[in-house]
User: Which sequence fits this backbone?
C-alpha cells in the first residue's frame, strides 16, 4: 500500500481534535483578555513567577516604607511644632532678661516680670510634656506613656528614657522619629538645662532691694542667666534643625521610593501584564482557525460515496 | 471436468462471504479497537483435460484481520506515556495553582505578616498595630495549614486513585488471561486460524491496561499473550493473572504503595510502574508532592524557630522577656512497622539554615547506623554518635537514639513533611508581642525588636544562609510551576506522538466507509455476474435439452 489509508473514524477524530485544540487556545486567550494578565499561573513562566514573588514583596515593602514615612513625618512635625514653641518661649524669656536688666526697676516691677517668667517656665514644662495626640508624649524617649517631666520647676524629675526609635522610610534609610526629653531639655552644653536657665534668671530677678550688693548680685545672676539662656536657645535650635533635616530626608526618601517602585512595577508588568494588541490579534487568528476547522469538518463529513449509491 | 455451474456457485458463495465481511466492517465503523477484516480468495486449482488446465472457480482462503503488531506495541507505549503524563500534569497544575494563586499561596500572607511587623515598628505603642500583627500572623499560619491540608488531601487522593487503578488493572489482567484461554482454544480447534474479533477484544483490554500501568507484551505460538510490568514482573502468564493492589508504607500506614501479588507473595513495585495512570500518580507523589511538602514545612519550621529566637530577645508591653511567638513544629521520626528491636529515635531541629526539606532513612545493621537521603538517594555521614550527649547531627537535625535496635531495623525521618500543619500562633494577647529591645521597661514604646523581627523578612535564613523565606518560597513556586510546565509540554508532545501512532494504526486497521462502499459495489457486481454465470449454465443446459428433444 503506497498511499496512507485514512479511516472514517480517524477523519472524524482529527476534525474534532482540531476544533478542540483551537477552542482550548481560545479559552486561554479569553482568560488572558478578561483578567489582563499574561501569567495566570507559575507554569506559564516559572522563572518570571519566582521573580514576581520577590518583586511583589519589594513593592509591598516600598509601600510600607511610605506608610512609615507618613507616621514619622507626622511625629517629627509635632516635635518641630513643640520645639518652635520652646524657642518662642525662650526668646520671650531672653527679652524679659534684657528688659529686667534695668537699674531703675523696683522690686514691684521685678516681681511682675518674675511672675511672667514663672508663667513661661510653666509653658516650657508644658511643651516638654507635649502629647502626640494618641496618649503618648513626644519627649519621653520610649518610656512615653506618662508625662516625662514631673515635679515643681526647676526640681523636675525626668521619667522617660534616652532611647530613640528608628523608622525605615526607604531601603537603607532609617530615621529617628523623635528626640528624648533628656537630650532636648536637660543636656544643654555648658552643664545646664533649659528649665534651670529660666529658674536661675527668676532667682536673680527675685533678689530683693536696690542696695549696691543686691544690684551686683542681680547683675551677676543676669549675666550668668543670659549665657545659659543663649546656650539653651542654641541647643533647642540645633535640635529643631536636626528635626528639619530628618523631615527633608523623609521627603527625599519619598522620591527614592517612587523611583524604586516604578522600576519594580515596570519589571512586574513586563512579567505579568498582557499585551492587549498582541492578544486581540492572536484571538482573531484563533477564531479564523476555528472557523476553518469547523468548515473543513462539515465539508469532509458531508461527503460520502454512499450518497451516490442510490 | 470443469463444471460451469459449480464454478458459478463457488463465486456466489465467495462474494456472499465478501459482502458479509464488508457489512461486518461497516457495522463496526464506530467500534473502538476494531480491526477491519477482508476475505482472502484463491482460485481453485485447474483440472487437466486434454493436456490443458481448466480453472474451476474460486475458493475462500480465509478471513484476514488487518493489523500490525509493531504498531500495536507502539500504541501501548504511547497510551502508557500519555496516561501517565495526563495524570501527572493534572496534579502538577493543581499544585501550581494553589502555590501561585494569591488567594491560596503563601506569598501574600507572608508579605502581610512582615508588613504588619514593619507597621508595628513605625508605631510600637499603637494597640491597633499590635492587633494587626496578631491577625496577620493568624492568616499566615492558617494559610500554611490550609496548604498542608491541600497537600495531605492530594496524598490521600493519590492513595485512593492508586487503589482504584490497581483494582482496575487487576480486573483487566484477569480478563486478558480469560481471553488467552478462549483464543488458545479457538486457535487449536481451527488448526491455527486466529479468532479475529477476540484478538481485537484482547488488544482493547491491553490498551486499557496500558493506560493504568506501563506494560510490555510477548505473544506465544499458541496465541496466548504474556504481559509484563515495566519493571519486568509478570502480570499475565498464559491463563494466569497476577493481582495489583496497594499496601501500607512500612513507615506510614496512611501512605499507600503499589504491590504485585503473584502466586500469593506480594512484591512492592512502587518505583517501577513506568507509565500509565499508576506511574503518573507515583511519579507525581515522589517527584513533586513529597518535595513540595518538605519545602513548605521547611519554610514553616524556619519561620517559627527564627521568629521565636528573635522574639525571646525582646521585651513585651508588660516589660517581660518575649515568650514563644509561634508554636514551633517538630521533626517526625517513624519506626518501620517491621522493626524487631526496642530502639527509638528522637529528632530535633539544630542549625536551621542546614535544613534541606528532604527525608532521611536510618538503618541499623547490627553494628552501625547508616543514613540515606531518601529524596536524592545519596548516603549521609552525620557528626556525633547518636547519644543524648553527642547526638547525630546532619541536615539541620540532631538525632538521639535510645533503646536497643535489632539488626535490620530502620527509621524514617521526615524533618519537615508535616511542619506546615503543625505551626501555630503561641500568643493571643497583643501586648505579649515583644516589640521593644532588651532593657526596655513596661509600657515602653521602643521598637528595636519589632525592627529586628521585621528584618527577618529579608534575612538569609535558609540554604546555608543564602536564601530568605520569600526567596525560598519563590523557588518553591518556580519548581512547582516548572514541573507543571514541563509535564504540560511533554503531554503536548506525547499527544502529537499518539496522534501519529493512532493514524498509523488506523491506516492499517481502520474502516473507511468510502472504501467499503466501493467494495460493496465491487462484490455486488461480482455476485450479480456469478448469478449470470449460473443463468448462462442454465440456458446452455436448456439449449442442450432442446437439441436432444428434436
Assistant:
Amino acid at each position: 500500500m503506497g498511499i496512507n489509508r485514512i479511516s472514517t473514524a480517524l477523519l472524524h477524530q482529527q476534525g474534532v481534535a482540531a476544533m478542540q485544540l483551537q477552542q482550548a487556545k481560545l479559552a486561554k486567550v479569553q482568560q488572558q483578555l478578561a483578567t489582563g494578565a499574561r501569567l495566570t499561573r507559575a507554569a506559564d513562566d516559572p522563572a518570571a513567577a519566582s521573580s514576581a514573588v520577590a518583586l511583589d514583596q519589594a513593592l509591598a515593602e516600598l509601600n510600607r516604607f511610605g506608610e512609615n514615612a507618613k507616621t514619622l513625618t507626622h511625629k517629627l512635625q509635632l516635635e518641630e511644632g513643640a520645639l518652635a514653641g520652646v524657642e518662642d518661649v525662650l526668646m520671650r524669656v531672653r527679652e524679659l532678661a534684657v528688659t529686667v536688666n534695668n537699674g531703675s526697676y523696683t522690686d514691684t516691677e521685678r516681681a511682675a516680670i518674675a511672675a511672667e517668667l514663672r508663667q513661661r517656665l510653666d509653658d516650657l514644662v508644658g511643651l516638654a510634656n507635649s502629647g502626640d495626640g494618641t496618649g503618648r508624649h513626644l519627649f519621653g524617649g520610649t518610656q512615653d506613656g506618662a508625662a516625662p517631666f514631673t515635679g515643681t520647676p526647676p526640681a523636675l524629675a525626668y521619667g522617660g528614657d534616652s532611647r530613640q526609635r528608628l523608622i525605615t522610610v526607604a531601603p537603607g534609610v532609617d530615621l529617628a522619629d523623635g528626640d528624648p526629653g533628656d537630650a532636648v531639655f536637660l543636656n544643654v552644653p555648658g552643664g545646664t538645662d533649659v528649665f534651670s536657665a529660666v529658674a536661675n534668671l527668676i532667682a536673680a530677678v527675685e533678689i530683693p532691694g536696690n542696695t549696691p550688693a543686691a544690684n551686683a548680685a542681680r547683675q551677676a545672676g543676669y549675666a550668668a542667666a543670659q549665657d545659659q539662656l543663649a546656650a539653651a536657645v542654641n541647643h533647642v535650635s540645633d535640635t529643631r534643625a536636626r528635626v528639619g533635616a530628618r523631615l527633608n530626608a523623609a521627603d527625599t526618601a519619598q522620591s527614592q521610593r517612587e523611583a524604586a517602585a516604578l522600576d519594580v512595577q515596570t519589571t512586574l508588568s513586563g512579567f505579568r501584564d498582557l499585551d492587549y494588541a498582541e492578544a486581540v490579534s492572536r484571538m482573531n487568528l484563533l477564531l479564523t482557525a476555528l472557523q476553518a476547522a469547523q468548515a473543513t469538518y462539515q465539508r469532509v463529513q458531508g461527503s460520502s460515496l454512499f450518497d451516490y449509491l442510490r | 471436468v470443469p463444471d460451469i455451474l459449480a464454478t458459478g456457485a463457488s463465486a456466489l458463495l465467495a462474494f456472499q462471504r465478501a459482502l458479509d465481511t464488508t457489512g461486518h466492517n461497516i457495522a463496526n465503523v464506530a467500534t473502538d479497537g476494531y480491526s477491519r477484516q477482508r476475505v482472502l480468495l484463491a482460485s481453485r486449482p485447474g483440472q487437466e483435460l486434454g493436456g490443458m488446465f481448466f480453472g474451476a472457480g474460486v475458493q475462500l482462503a480465509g478471513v484476514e484481520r488487518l493489523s500490525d503488531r509493531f504498531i500495536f506495541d507502539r500504541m501501548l507505549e504511547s497510551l502508557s506515556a500519555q496516561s501517565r503524563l495526563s495524570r501527572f500534569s493534572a496534579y502538577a497544575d493543581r499544585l501550581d495553582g494553589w502555590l501561585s494563586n494569591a488567594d491560596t499561596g503563601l506569598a501574600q500572607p507572608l508579605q502581610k505578616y512582615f508588613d504588619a511587623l514593619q507597621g508595628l515598628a513605625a508605631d510600637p505603642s499603637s494597640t491597633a498595630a499590635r492587633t494587626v500583627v496578631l491577625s496577620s500572623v493568624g492568616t499566615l499560619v492558617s494559610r500554611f495549614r490550609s496548604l498542608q491540608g491541600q497537600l495531605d488531601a492530594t496524598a490521600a487522593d493519590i492513595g485512593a486513585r492508586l487503589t482504584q487503578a490497581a483494582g482496575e488493572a487487576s480486573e483487566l489482567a484477569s480478563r486478558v488471561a480469560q481471553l488467552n484461554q478462549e483464543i488458545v482454544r479457538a486457535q487449536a480447534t481451527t488448526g491455527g486460524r486466529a479468532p479475529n474479533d477476540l484478538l481485537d477484544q484482547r488488544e482493547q483490554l491491553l490498551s486499557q491496561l496500558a493506560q493504568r500501568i506501563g506494560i510490555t507484551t510477548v505473544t506465544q505460538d499458541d496465541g496466548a499473550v504474556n504481559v509484563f510490568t515495566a519493571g519486568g514482573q509478570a502480570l499475565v502468564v498464559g491463563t494466569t493473572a497476577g493481582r495489583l493492589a496497594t499496601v501500607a508504607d512500612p513507615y506510614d500506614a496512611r501512605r499507600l504503595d503499589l504491590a504485585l501479588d503473584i502466586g500469593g507473595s506480594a512484591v512492592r513495585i512502587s518505583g517501577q510502574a513506568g507509565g500509565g495512570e499508576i506511574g503518573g500518580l507515583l511519579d507525581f507523589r515522589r517527584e513533586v508532592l513529597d518535595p513540595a511538602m518538605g519545602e513548605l514545612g521547611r519554610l514553616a519550621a524556619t519561620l517559627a524557630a527564627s521568629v521565636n529566637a528573635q522574639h525571646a530577645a525582646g521585651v513585651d508591653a508588660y516589660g517581660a522577656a518575649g515568650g514563644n511567638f509561634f508554636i514551633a513544629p517538630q521533626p517526625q521520626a517513624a519506626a518501620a512497622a517491621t522493626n524487631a528491636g526496642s530502639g527509638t529515635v528522637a529528632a530535633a531541629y539544630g542549625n536551621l539554615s542546614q535544613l534541606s526539606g528532604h527525608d532521611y532513612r536510618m538503618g541499623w545493621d547490627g553494628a552501625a547506623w547508616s543514613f540515606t537521603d531518601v529524596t536524592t538517594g545519596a548516603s549521609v555521614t552525620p557528626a556525633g554518635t547518636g547519644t543524648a550527649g553527642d547526638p547525630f547531627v546532619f541536615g539541620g537535625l540532631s538525632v538521639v537514639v535510645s533503646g536497643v535496635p535489632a539488626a535490620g531495623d530502620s527509621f524514617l525521618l521526615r524533618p519537615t513533611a508535616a511542619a506546615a500543619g503543625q505551626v501555630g500562633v503561641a500568643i493571643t494577647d497583643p501586648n505579649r508581642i515583644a516589640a521593644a529591645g532588651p532593657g526596655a521597661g513596661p509600657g515602653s514604646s521602643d521598637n528595636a525588636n519589632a525592627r529586628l523581627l521585621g528584618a527577618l523578612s529579608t534575612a538569609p535564613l535558609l540554604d546555608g544562609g543564602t536564601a530568605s523565606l520569600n526567596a525560598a518560597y519563590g523557588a518553591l513556586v518556580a519548581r512547582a510551576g516548572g514541573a507543571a510546565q514541563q509535564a504540560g509540554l511533554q503531554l503536548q508532545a506525547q499527544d502529537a506522538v499518539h496522534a501519529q501512532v493512532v493514524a498509523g494504526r488506523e491506516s492499517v486497521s481502520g474502516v473507511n466507509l468510502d472504501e467499503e462502499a466501493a467494495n460493496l459495489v465491487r462484490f455486488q457486481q461480482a455476485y450479480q455476474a456469478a448469478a449470470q454465470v449460473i443463468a448462462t449454465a442454465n440456458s446452455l443446459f436448456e439449449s442442450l435439452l432442446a437439441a436432444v428433444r428434436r
Summary: The mean pLDDT of chain B is 93.
